[in-house]
Specification:
By secondary structure, the chain is α+β, with helices and mostly antiparallel strands. The protein is about 65% helix and about 10% strand.
C-alpha cells in the first residue's frame, strides 16, 4: 500500500474521529461561499449606485475568511489532540517524524478538498434561500438565482490557500512531543488545580474598571481599546482564577459539599473549569462580539427614521439673508416640486438674527413669538420670557454628549446687550448645526437688538410623508445653486436614502457575521465536549459500578454542562450591555428595547443548542455505561 493510499484508508476507517473537523471546515466554506454569492451577484451593482455596497461586502468577506482560518486552526488542534495516542502507536511501529508530518498534511488536504466540495455544493443548494434573505434585509427586489462562477473560484482559491497553510502548520502540534507523551494522549494524570486570590480579585477589578469607564463616560485617548483590554484581561482571570477559586472554596463547606451528589460535580467541575479556561474565555469574547455587533446594527437600523426626525424636525429648510436675490424663485421651486410629487406640507417662516462670533457657525436668536409658532407646528410646549431674559435651544439632537446645562446666574452676550439665561430647551427646532448657538429672546428685546451681523428669515416645509420625498428632494437639489452667503438650503430626504442604505448594509453584514460568530462559539464548546467524551465515559462507567443511578449521573452531567455552557453566554450578555452603552451616547434614540430583543433571541437560541448538545452528549456517554 502506498503512503497516499494509507492516508486515504486512514480517513475512511476513522471517519467518526474526522467528522467534527470535516463539519467545521464545511461550515466555514459554506459561510464564505454564501457571502461571496451575494458579493458577486449582478443585481447588487444595479440596485445600488455607489461602490459602498461592494466595499462593505468585501470587508465582510475578508473578516469571514480570517475568522474561518482561526476557526479551522482551532478545529484541527482539537482534532489532532484526540489522535495523539494513534500517532504514538504509529511512531512505535516505525513511522518516522517526517512520514508522520506528511501523513498529517496529506489527511488535512484530503479533508479540506472533501469539505470544499461539500461546502460549495451545499452552498449552491442554499444560495437561492440566502439570496431571498439578503433581498429582505436590503429591501431590494428579489435577487434572482444565478450561476456564481466567480464565487466558486474565489472560494476554491481562498480555502486552498487556507488548507495548504494549515497542512504546513498542523504537524507543529505534535512535532515536539515524545513518544511516551503521544501514547498517553489525554490520559495523563491531571495536576490539582490552583488559583490565586490576588489574581481572582484582580480579575474582578479589571472588569469593574472597564464597566466604570463606560458608566462614567470617561474620555481619554484610545479609551475603547483600553476598555476592551481591561475587560478581556479580567474575563480571562475570571475563568482561570476566580471561578476555580470559588469552586475550591465550595469544597470547604461541608454542609454544601457533602450534600447528595454535590461532591462529585463540584470536584470534577474544578478541573474542567481550569482545563477549559481558555476555551470559555474565547467563547465569551466571541459571543460578546456577536451580541454587540448584531444588537448595534439592528438598533441603528431600526432607529434611523426617528434619528432623522430628531436631527431634522422640519424636513425641508431654507434660511434666507437680506442679500438673497433668489429667495422667491427658490421658495417657489420647493413648493412646486413638493406639489408635483403629491406631497402634503405646511409652511412656516420665522425671522432670526445672527451675531458675530469666533466660530464659523454664528450665534443666532429668534423671538418668543417665532419659537412658539415653531413649537405649535412641532407639538411642543410654548415659552414665556420677560424683558432681559433668554433661553438657550440645543442645536443638536438630544444625545447624551450634547445635552445643554444652565449655570447659576448665567449671562448671554448678544451684540452690545447682556441677557440673563433662565433655561434651556434640549430638543432642537432647526436642522442640526444650522447655527453655532441659538437663543430665544423676549419679543421686544428681539426687535431692539443692535450690533447685528445678519438679519434673515427661516422658511420651513413640514412634510408628514418626508421619507417618501426623496424624488422631490433630488429635483430641488438639482436646481438650487448653493450660495452660503445669501441662503442655506437643507433637507433630510437628501441624505436619508444614502444613510438608510448604509444602515441596511451594516445590518446585513453585521447580522451575518454575528450569526457566524455565534455558531462558531457553540462549535468550540461542542468540539471540547466531543474531545473529552471517551475520558468521561470511563469515569461515569466507574460511577455506575459503585451504585450510582442513571438519574444521578444525568443530573451531575446536566449541572456541569449548564454551568460551562451558560456562564460564558451570561457574561457575554453583560459585557454587551456595557458595550452598547457606548453606542447609546452617539444616538439620540433609545436602543435598549431593540438590544433586549436581540439578546433574548440569542439566549433562546443558545438554550435550544444546550438542550440538543445535552441530549447528544448524554447519549454518547451513557450508551456503554
Amino acid at each position: 500500500m502506498k503512503f497516499r493510499q494509507f492516508a486515504i484508508k486512514n480517513v475512511q476507517r476513522n471517519y467518526k474521529a474526522y467528522l467534527a473537523y470535516f463539519l467545521s471546515s464545511t461550515f466555514s466554506i459554506l459561510v464564505f461561499f454564501l457571502f461571496a454569492v451575494n458579493l458577486f451577484h449582478p443585481m447588487i451593482g444595479e440596485s445600488f449606485t455607489s461602490g459602498t455596497v461592494h466595499l462593505v461586502l468585501s470587508a465582510g468577506e475578508v473578516a469571514i475568511s480570517i475568522f474561518s482560518l482561526l476557526f479551522i486552526l482551532y478545529s484541527v488542534g482539537t482534532f489532532l489532540k484526540m489522535r495523539l495516542a494513534e500517532f504514538g502507536l504509529l511512531t512505535i511501529l516505525g513511522v518516522t517524524r517526517k512520514q508522520l508530518n506528511r501523513l498529517i498534511s496529506l489527511e488535512n488536504i484530503i479533508i479540506g478538498l472533501a469539505a470544499m466540495v461539500t461546502g460549495i455544493a451545499t452552498g449552491l443548494f442554499l444560495s437561492k434561500y440566502f439570496l431571498m434573505f439578503a433581498s429582505v434585509i436590503l429591501e431590494v427586489p428579489e435577487l434572482e438565482f444565478y450561476m456564481p462562477v466567480k464565487a466558486i473560484l474565489v472560494t476554491i482559491t481562498c480555502f486552498l490557500i487556507i488548507f495548504v497553510l494549515i497542512s504546513k502548520l498542523a504537524p507543529f502540534a505534535v512535532r515536539s512531543k515524545e513518544i511516551i507523551e503521544l501514547l498517553k494522549g489525554n490520559r495523563k494524570p491531571k495536576e490539582p488545580p490552583k488559583a490565586s486570590i490576588r489574581l481572582s480579585i484582580a480579575g474582578l477589578i479589571l472588569i469593574a474598571a472597564g464597566y466604570i469607564i463606560v458608566v462614567l463616560q470617561m474620555a481619554f485617548p484610545f479609551h475603547l481599546g483600553v476598555i476592551g483590554t481591561l475587560v478581556s484581561a479580567g474575563t480571562y482571570l475570571f475563568y482561570s482564577q476566580l471561578s476555580v477559586f470559588t469552586l475550591m472554596r465550595l469544597t470547604s463547606l461541608p454542609t454544601l459539599f457533602f450534600r447528595k451528589t454535590n461532591l462529585l460535580w463540584i470536584s470534577d467541575l474544578v478541573y474542567r473549569m481550569k482545563d477549559n479556561a481558555r476555551l470559555l474565555f474565547v467563547v465569551t469574547i466571541t459571543c460578546t462580539v456577536s451580541f454587540t455587533t448584531m444588537a448595534a446594527s439592528f438598533a441603528v437600523y431600526q432607529t434611523v427614521d426617528e434619528e432623522y426626525a430628531n436631527s431634522y424636525p422640519i424636513p425641508f429648510n431654507y434660511s434666507s439673508y437680506s442679500s438673497d436675490v433668489q429667495r422667491e424663485n427658490n421658495l417657489s421651486l420647493i413648493s412646486s416640486k413638493l406639489d408635483e410629487e403629491g406631497l402634503s406640507y405646511r409652511t412656516i417662516s420665522v425671522p432670526f438674527l445672527e451675531f458675530d462670533s469666533d466660530s464659523r457657525q454664528k450665534t443666532a436668536a429668534i423671538s418668543t413669538q417665532g419659537y412658539n409658532r415653531l413649537a405649535e407646528l412641532l407639538n411642543r410646549e410654548p415659552l414665556q420670557l420677560k424683558s432681559g431674559e433668554a433661553i438657550e435651544v440645543s442645536i443638536w439632537t438630544n444625545k447624551a454628549n450634547s445635552r445643554l446645562t444652565i449655570q447659576e446666574n448665567g449671562k448671554v452676550h448678544l451684540g452690545s446687550n447682556i441677557l440673563r439665561l433662565i433655561g434651556v430647551v434640549q430638543d432642537n427646532i432647526f436642522p442640526e448645526g444650522l447655527f453655532g448657538n441659538l437663543y430665544v429672546l423676549n419679543d421686544s428685546d428681539f426687535e431692539k437688538q443692535d450690533s447685528v451681523l445678519n438679519k434673515g428669515v427661516y422658511y420651513g416645509y413640514s412634510v408628514p410623508d418626508w421619507t417618501e420625498a426623496s424624488t422631490a428632494a433630488e429635483k430641488i437639489r438639482a436646481q438650487i445653486k448653493t450660495d452660503g452667503n445669501a441662503f442655506k438650503y437643507r433637507s433630510s430626504p437628501d441624505w436619508y436614502q444614502t444613510d438608510q442604505l448604509t444602515y441596511k448594509l451594516i445590518l446585513f453584514v453585521g447580522s451575518f457575521i454575528s450569526i457566524v460568530f455565534f455558531i462558531a462559539a457553540g462549535s468550540f464548546i461542542y468540539f471540547r465536549f466531543y474531545t473529552d467524551v471517551q475520558e468521561e465515559k470511563v469515569k461515569y462507567r466507574n460511577l455506575r459500578k459503585i451504585g450510582m443511578t442513571i438519574r444521578e449521573v444525568k443530573k451531575i452531567i446536566t449541572v456541569q454542562l449548564a454551568i460551562l455552557f451558560f456562564i460564558p453566554i451570561l457574561l457575554a450578555a453583560l459585557h454587551s450591555v456595557f458595550a452598547l452603552q457606548t453606542l447609546q451616547r452617539l444616538i439620540s434614540v433609545s436602543i435598549s428595547s431593540y438590544a433586549s430583543i436581540i439578546l433574548i433571541f440569542f439566549l433562546v437560541a443558545w438554550s435550544i443548542y444546550f438542550l440538543l448538545l445535552r441530549s447528544r452528549y448524554l447519549r454518547s456517554l451513557l450508551e456503554e455505561t
